[in-house]
Structures are given as structure tokens and as C-alpha cells.
Amino acid sequence: MAFYRSPYEAYPFLSDADDDLRCDFELVTDELASGAGLLRSQVTNQNLAEELLWICEMIYHINPTLRTSLTVTEDETARLAAMVDRLQKESTVHGFVLPCGCQSACTAHLLRVKAKCLVRLLYRYLQRGHEVPNGLLDLCNLLSGYFFLLALKLNALEGVEEYGYCSRNYR
Q1: Are 135 and 74 in contact (CB under 8 A)?
Q2: What is the pLDDT along the chain (171 residues), one digit of tens a residue?
Q3: Which end of the chain is less enclosed by CB atoms within 10 A, N or C?
Q4: 64-95 core/surface letters (b: 16 or more CB in 10 A; e: else)
Q5: 85 found inside a domain
Q6: Going along 77-118, which residue ranges are E strands?
Q7: Signed CA dihedral, 144, 94, 84, 126: sign only
Q8: Residue 11 has what DSSP assignment?
Q9: Per residue in 27-41, is it b (16+ CB within 10 Å) or e — as a string?
Q10: Which residue range forms the structural domain that includes residue 137?
Q11: Rounded-to-integer distance, Cα 44 and Cα 157, Å
Q12: What Å distances lie between residue 52 and 20, 60, 97, 127, CA to CA?
């Protein structure tokens, strides 16, 4: 079936077949990187701002992975894992919390969810018979954990209380 392709098309893969999830992955990583840039503009702590700049760059490095190859190194993955470990050790909060608080923490919570969307997309891609580097799954899961723990850190820095959440369905 032939269809119109705008000469102003914003991205060359937007017309990929609906069962080809590579463009969807690239769009979600672009959104996640853009969100990391937004969060960086909301953060006043210089160390965290520099960390977010690095995170943003790593997200863009994973963007073309499904079309090309994973270029994020094991050392870079280890660096992200160490950031997650550091934030976990700094946190006094354990368990589920409501995704609220200061503006930067709310932005981090949105990024946490978007990283989980990436993981879900990768599993759908795998289920369709394609290969996904294990390291890419690790990175996307680490990003979700990073943004969750960063939300807790940002609320703590602003003196904002976390609100624990206990599900009525999952106990």
C-alpha cells in the first residue's frame, strides 16, 4: 500500500512498518534524553547536574542500538550501576512511595516510568524474534532505578516528605 510521505518528515524512520519497533525505541529514548535535559535544568546541585548531562549522553548512545550495535561500554554500565548503588545507600526510604514531591523529583519519577517503557518495548522486540543485547536491557533497567532513587534524593535535598504507598492488590 502506497501512502504519502511528507518531504518535511522529521525523522526518516517514522514510516517504518507498525510491527518494526526500532523507531518506537528511538522515539522513547529521545523523549527520555529530552526529559533528562529538562530535569537537569530543574536541579540546583552541580554534581547531580553534571551526572544528568552524562546520563543524557548515555541515553543518546543507546538510541540507535537496535539498528546498529550497543556502543555503551561495560565501564559506562558499571558507572551507572555505581550511581544507582550510591543513591540507594544515601536513601533512608525503602519500599513504594507515591510519585510526588518537588518539581524535580516529579520529573525524575516520569523518567523512571519512561525507562520502564523502554524495557517493555525491548521485551516486545525480543518476543518478535529479534536480538537485544543483554547490556541494553541492563542499561534501561538501571536507568529506571536511577531515576527512582534520584527522585528520592531530590525530595530529600528539598526537605520534601515522601508518602509511602501500600497496594491493596499486591501484598
Answers
A1: yes
A2: 788 999 999 998 998 998 999 999 999 999 999 999 999 999 999 999 999 999 999 999 999 999 999 999 999 999 999 999 999 999 999 889 999 999 999 999 999 999 999 999 999 999 999 999 999 999 999 999 999 999 999 999 999 999 999 888 887
A3: N
A4: ebbeeebebeeebbebbeebbeebeeeeebee
A5: no
A6: none
A7: negative
A8: S
A9: ebbebbbebbeebbe
A10: 22-67+95-158
A11: 10
A12: 30, 12, 22, 32
What does the block give as the cell for 139? Answer: 542499561
CA angle (82 as vertex; 76, 85 as ends), nearest 5: 150
User: Would you say residue 166 lies in a domain?
Assistant: no
In a domain, 13, yes or no: no
Say if CB 36 and CB 118 are below 8 A apart.
Answer: no
Strand, helix or coil at 104? helix
Q: Kindly state the cell numbers that stand for 12.
A: 526518516
Count of domains forming the chain: 1
Give yes or no for a contact between 30 and 63, defined as CB atoms under 8 angstroms apart.
yes
Give this prediction's pTM.
0.95
Read off the C-alpha cell for 69.
Answer: 550495535
Dist CA 58 CA 123 (whole Å): 20
Amino acid in the structure at residue 132: V
